[in-house]
Design brief:
Helices cover 11% and strands 40% of the residues. The protein folds into two domains: 31 residues, no CATH class; 75 residues, no CATH class. The chain is mainly β and 116 residues long. A hairpin with a 5-residue loop joins strand 5 and strand 6.
């Protein structure tokens, strides 16, 4: 399990907590969560704690063969609403998106920050 945290203060705190609890199969890196680098994948699951207006191009190639992306997405019928979506690759090279449940999350912002 790998968490990409855009706030350096939270990344440091989370890494220290994992070490204190002797959790060795999880890690935290400080960085832009929207800029997943190909060298750190593939992932079975990518779970985004925020709203994605568009699925970033680099997310789908970062998924493993049967990988899934779960994120809040705008409701295409009513842009003021959103839902949690299950997103998977399809055989045509695109993605299939299945709404799961309503949500109310902030939009995911690009970049890095030193503190919350």
């Amino acid at each position: 399990m790998l968490s990409i945290e855009r706030f350096k203060s939270l990344a440091i705190e989370a890494e220290a907590r994992l070490a204190r609890l002797a959790i060795a199969n999880a890690g935290v890196i400080f960085g832009d969560g929207l800029a997943i680098l190909p060298k750190i994948g593939p992932f079975d699951r990518i779970i985004v704690q925020g709203l994605l207006a568009e699925v970033p191009e680099n997310f789908i190639p970062a998924l493993g063969e049967d990988g899934l992306l779960v994120a809040a997405r705008p409701d295409p019928k009513t842009m003021s609403r959103q839902h949690i979506a299950r997103i998977a690759r399809n055989g045509a090279g695109g993605i299939d998106e299945t709404p799961v449940c309503p949500s109310r999350l902030q939009a995911l912002l690009p970049g890095e920050a030193l503190a919350l």
